[in-house]
Amino acid sequence: MPQIINLGKELLRINTQKNSIDYSHNEGRSWVMRCNNSSYGTFRDLLLYGRELLACTSKGIYVSTNNGYSFAIRCSNSSYGEFLNLQDTGRELIANTTKGIYYSQNAGRSWVTR
């Protein structure tokens, strides 16, 4: 589960100690907090998906269109279980959850059991 991703000229990471999204402009030598909002839940995974940044959290899937400065809920349906990590296969998103493996063909808005 990627906790550091390349986002153009910067790196983004999940800071697990502070439960924040941090960024670096110097290849990871130093980090600055970008987003720290406990209402999103605990950050677990990041995935760059087209022009969106998807965050897998303890409260669901969140989406950012501003490079991780803020997030909006994309999917919080507890019938899927807690989302643990995401993967882009090129055709669909795959999610590993506490209730099994799911796939989405609509950018994570809804999920089907695999």
Shape: globular
How far the N terminus sits from the C terminus, by CA atoms, comes to 19 Å
Radius of gyration from CA coordinates:
13 Å
Number of strands: 12
Percentage of β-strand residues: over 45%
Biggest sheet statistics: 4 strands, antiparallel
Q: How are helices and strands ordered from N to C?
A: EEEEEEEEEEEE
Low-confidence stretches: none
Structure, described:
It is a single chain. The chain contains no helices and 12 strands. The protein is mainly β and 114 residues long. The protein has strands spanning 4-7, 10-15, 20-24, 32-35, 43-49, 52-57, 60-64, 72-75, 83-88, 93-97, 100-104, 112-113. A hairpin with a 2-residue loop joins strand 10 and strand 11 (100-104).
Spell out the key features of this protein.
114 residues, mainly beta, 4-stranded antiparallel sheet, 12 strands
Give the arrangement of secondary structure elements.
Elements: E1 4-7, E2 10-15, E3 20-24, E4 32-35, E5 43-49, E6 52-57, E7 60-64, E8 72-75, E9 83-88, E10 93-97, E11 100-104, E12 112-113
Antiparallel strand pairs: 1-2, 2-3, 3-4, 5-6, 6-7, 7-8, 9-10, 10-11, 11-12
Q: What's the quick description here?
A:
Helices cover 0% and strands 52% of the residues. It has no helices and twelve strands.
